[in-house]
Structure to design on (677 residues):
């Protein structure tokens, strides 16, 4: 990612075409855009063939996908609203990935975060809205952070594989949520769909002025940028990447690997917990089983497609948010089942992983030295 | 409760019956994963395979009227998904854990997509053998209505144990899992051994899925499997890659999973969701107890990415 040009003015003066070293310096960056992009196009192609097998016109499919995702201002807003939790849950996978850990339990941290933030909002009904919102965010982040830290701690101190433990914790989180929502925290008036009481209209987050997109998007962008700075521009992030690259080297130079793992897992979980808070405070207004909408799982895909880069998570989350936003239109206009978005996500995921084999193998990007 | 005389005995009896009924998918998935992991690769996608297996078994059984054709279809679907996993993993620099996560999402998505029209109709279900004929008590008879797949699974565990120890392909799989270099030096293709091991693993996991939709719970819906596949994968790890231990662990899990419904049947409903989470909590607890950061697990295939 680093440019080796000493003088920025010089870099501007030389046009890419005339500069023989351009591909050599930026080949890596171009690769990181080109290969996932190609994987995405390939996946869309396969999905087109798939729906064609069911007698639908693939061109209609692409048209409605574009319409539903980015075609109108309304669909843009829908897309951005869905992108907000995706950015946050993607960070839950992307941050531990810097340490070489594969955490896939963002959904669990989201649910626990939602539960914690709802609980605190319900006990703080006397307080001014801003205080309630801050407390909700803090509670959601702490609860989610501790939840993923559990996976990190188990990995570090007990050698339990973090991928499996974090996924098991998703099911446990869902059970806790259902248990509380149908028992202790149940609003007696919620008959068909057991839910907690509402946090109150005054405590809701509201929209960014001039849009219907809630403030969660801003939270997400801030979290992603902060994560990027933390990972690439601080000593802490450097230490994390060293430990991720070679754990033995990290120990030899005296890095506290355990502390690194715990901190990064806490931040990762806090991010997904914040997503839970946002879903409660900006969308649902209460906690119920609706919160398990799969944002945590789509977040894993976002992180992998962004190649675990916190900054790249933002556009990728918008893209995937767009795909899920277009699901409704595909259902109405083409009669595709609601699971078609899930199928497409699965295909994209498979293509993105298979495309890992291409890095460093594209001839013209290697540059001639 | 038709028969009041056995009272609280209902609970252990239901747990026993549950251990037999609920354990079957765990049994098949864990034995399948055991084969795959012994060859040096981990397939986390078996959760998706399980759901795809359940859906295709139900669909084929509905269309042909033969549940056994459904079981076969589920196995073939599973083997195909296994081949996909192995195919992608054989590309350079591709992480098998990540591919498993992708196939987990892909498998469940595809099953929900293709299975939409199957939620309404009723398919022919697998028959059960009545082992409780000697008893007059309804609960005993219910607990001992056993499916043939369960018996096949139970028989498969010692067969696999024996096969890993003594047969030629058992040794080949273990060689590929312990040292890819050694297998290569002997002139065998590690990728092709792993491909076959993953396909067999997928085949068994698919059959495990067919049990879900064709016997217990015995219908197709989108909430059919919630993590049984991934639990079974975890189960292989603390069963130390030993098929016999996989069998015992699966039975224990079936019992744990049956606890919630069993308690509900005697009127204990308060912790229903928590009891339903018992298998996951149990898995996590056993992993915490049996894993250690200091040493690699005994019996772990050396080529396995998850224990490296």
């Amino acid at each position: 990612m680093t440019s080796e040009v000493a003088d920025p003015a010089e870099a501007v003066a030389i046009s890419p075409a005339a500069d023989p070293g351009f591909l050599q310096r930026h080949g890596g960056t171009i690769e990181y855009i080109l290969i996932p992009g190609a994987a995405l196009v390939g996946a869309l192609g396969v999905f087109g063939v798939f729906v064609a097998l069911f007698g639908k016109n693939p061109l209609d499919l692409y048209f409605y996908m574009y319409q539903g995702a980015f075609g109108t201002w309304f669909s843009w807003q829908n897309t951005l609203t869905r992108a907000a939790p995706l950015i946050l849950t993607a960070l839950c996978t992307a941050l531990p990935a810097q340490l070489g850990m594969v955490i896939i339990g963002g959904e669990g941290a989201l649910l626990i975060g939602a539960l914690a933030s709802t609980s605190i909002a319900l006990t703080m009904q006397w307080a001014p809205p801003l205080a309630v919102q801050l407390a909700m965010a803090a509670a959601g982040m702490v609860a989610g952070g501790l939840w993923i830290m559990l996976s990190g701690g188990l990995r570090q101190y007990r050698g339990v594989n973090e991928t499996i433990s974090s996924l098991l914790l998703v099911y446990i989180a869902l059970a806790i949520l259902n248990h509380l929502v149908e028992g202790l925290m149940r609003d007696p008036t919620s008959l068909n769909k057991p839910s907690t009481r509402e946090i109150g209209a005054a405590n809701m987050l509201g929209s960014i002025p001039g849009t219907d997109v809630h403030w969660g998007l801003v939270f997400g962008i801030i979290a992603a940028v902060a994560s990027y700075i933390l990972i690439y521009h601080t000593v802490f992030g450097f230490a994390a990447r060293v430990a991720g690259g070679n754990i033995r080297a990290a120990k030899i130079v005296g890095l506290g690997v355990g502390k690194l793992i715990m901190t990064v897992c806490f931040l990762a979980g806090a991010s997904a917990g914040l997503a839970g808070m946002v879903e409660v405070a900006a969308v649902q207004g209460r906690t119920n089983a609706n919160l398990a909408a799969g944002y945590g799982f789509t977040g894993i895909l976002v992180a992998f497609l962004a190649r675990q880069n916190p900054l790249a998570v933002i556009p990728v989350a918008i893209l995937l948010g767009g795909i899920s936003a277009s699901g409704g239109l595909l259902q109405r206009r083409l009669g595709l089942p609601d699971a078609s978005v899930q199928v497409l996500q699965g295909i994209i995921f498979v293509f993105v992983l298979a495309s890992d084999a291409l890095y460093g193998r594209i001839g013209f990007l290697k540059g001639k030295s | 409760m038709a028969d009041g005389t056995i009272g609280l005995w209902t609970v252990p009896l239901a747990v026993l019956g549950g251990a037999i009924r609920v354990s079957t998918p765990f049994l098949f998935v864990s034995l399948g994963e055991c084969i795959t992991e012994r060859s040096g690769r981990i397939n986390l996608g078996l959760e998706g395979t399980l759901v795809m297996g359940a859906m295709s078994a139900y669909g084929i059984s509905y269309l042909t009227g033969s549940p056994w054709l459904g079981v076969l279809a589920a196995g073939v679907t599973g083997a195909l998904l296994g081949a996909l996993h192995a195919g992608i993993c054989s590309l350079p620099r591709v992480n098998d854990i990540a591919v498993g996560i992708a196939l987990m999402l892909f498998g469940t998505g595809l099953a929900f997509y293709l299975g939409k029209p199957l939620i309404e109709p009723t398919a022919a279900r697998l028959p059960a053998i009545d082992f409780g004929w000697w008893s007059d008590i309804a609960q005993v008879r219910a607990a001992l209505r056993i499916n043939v797949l369960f018996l096949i699974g139970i028989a498969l565990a010692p067969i696999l144990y024996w096969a890993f120890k003594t047969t030629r392909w058992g040794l080949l799989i273990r060689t590929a899992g312990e040292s890819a270099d050694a297998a290569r030096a002997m002139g065998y293709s590690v990728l092709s051994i792993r491909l076959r091991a993953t396909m067999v693993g997928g085949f068994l996991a698919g059959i495990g899925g067919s049990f879900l939709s064709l016997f217990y719970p015995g219908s197709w819906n989108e909430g059919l499997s919630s993590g049984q596949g991934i639990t079974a994968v975890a189960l292989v790890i603390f069963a130390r890659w030993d098929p016999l231990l996989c069998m015992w662990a699966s039975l224990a899990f079936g019992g744990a999973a049956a606890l919630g419904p069993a308690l509900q049947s005697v009127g204990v409903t308060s912790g229903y969701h928590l009891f339903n989470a018992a298998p996951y909590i149990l898995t996590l607890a056993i992993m915490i107890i049996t894993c250690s950061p200091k040493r690699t697990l005994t019996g772990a295939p050396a080529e396995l990415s998850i224990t490296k």
